[in-house]
Amino acid sequence: MFTGIIEAKGKIKSLTNSGTDIRLVVETQNLDMTDVHLGDSIATNGVCLTVVEYGNDYYAADVSQETIKLTGFKHYGVGNSVNLEKAMRADSRFGGHIVSGHVDGLGTVKAINKHTNYVEIWVEAPTSLLKYIAHKGSITVDGVSLTVNEVKDSEFMLWLIPHTLQETIIGSYKVGTEVNLEVDLIARYLERLILGSHQYDNTEKNSQKDSNIDMTFLAENGYLKK
C-alpha cells in the first residue's frame, strides 16, 4: 500500500529481457535504501514492484509481460526517470490517499497550460475509467496522488504547483505523453458493494422469512420511533 507522495526520482539503469519477463534495475538516487529488504514493495511510476535485489543506490525488480503491456513500461528505456515511493509505514503521516500500486489504465496528456504559479494539465482517460473520476476526487498519475480539478467529457484537469513539478517526473510531460492511472480505490469498492449486493437479494429475502425480527419488533424495542 502506498500514499502517492513521491519520495524521490530514480532513473532506469537497465532492462534485461529474460523471455518471460524483464529484469528492471533502477538507480534510486535520493531514495533512502537503508530500510529496504528483499521482497519489499517499491512503487515505480505507480506500479507496485517487488525488490528482488538491491544495494545502496539501486534495486532490481522483475516486470511481467502483462504489466509491460498494460502500463507505460512499454515505452520506457534506459535513462528514463521514474517516480519512486516505498510502501507506506503504519507509523508515518498519510499525506496522499490510498494507493494500491495496481494501474487501472493509461491516460494521455492532451494539453499543458502554464500559469504564473501553477501548470494546468489535461489528461484523457480511457472510457472504462471515467465513471471513477470525480471533481475534487483523488487520482494517481504515474504514482503521484493528485486532486481532480475539473472533468470534461473524456478528460480531467490537474493543477500542479512548482514543488510537484520539480520533485516528480510530471515536470517533463509533453502533449502526447502516456501516463499510468490508478483511480480511487474507495470508488472501486463502492461500485462492487452496490453491484454485488443485487446477487444476494434473494438470499437475504429468504433469510428474513426465518427471522422473528420485523418492523414491529424493532419499534417495540426502541430501535424505531412509533
Task: Give a verbal description of the structure.
The chain is an alpha+beta fold and 226 residues long. The chain has two domains: 8-86, Elongation Factor Tu (Ef-tu), domain 3; 105-188, Elongation Factor Tu (Ef-tu), domain 3 (Beta Barrel). The chain contains five helices and 14 strands. It has helices spanning 65-70, 162-167, 185-198, 201-209, 215-220, and strands at 8-17, 21-27, 41-44, 47-50, 53-54, 58-64, 81-86, 105-114, 119-124, 138-141, 144-147, 150-152, 155-160, 178-183. The strands form two sheets. Strands 4-3-7-1-2-6-5 form a seven-stranded antiparallel sheet. The longest helix has 14 residues, at 185-198. The N and C termini lie far apart (47 Å). The mean pLDDT is 89.
Structure, briefly:
The protein is 18% helix and 35% strand.
CATH architecture heading of the largest domain: Beta Barrel
Largest sheet descriptor: 7 strands, antiparallel
Structural class: alpha+beta
User: Rg to the nearest angstrom?
Assistant: 22 Å
Mean residue pLDDT = 89
The CATH class assignment of the largest domain is Mainly Beta
Provide the succession of SSEs: EEEEEEHEEEEEEEHEHHH
Main-sheet strand order equals: 4-3-7-1-2-6-5
| Shape, per Cα inertia axes | globular
Task: Determine the CATH topology of the largest domain.
Answer: Elongation Factor Tu (Ef-tu), domain 3
Question: How many angstroms separate the termini?
Answer: 47 Å
Query: What is the helix fraction of residues, given as a range?
Result: 10-25%
Query: Count the helices. How many?
Result: 5
Using DSSP, what is the number of strands? Answer: 14
Give the number of domains: 2
Uncertain parts: none
Give the amount of beta strand, in percent: 25-35%
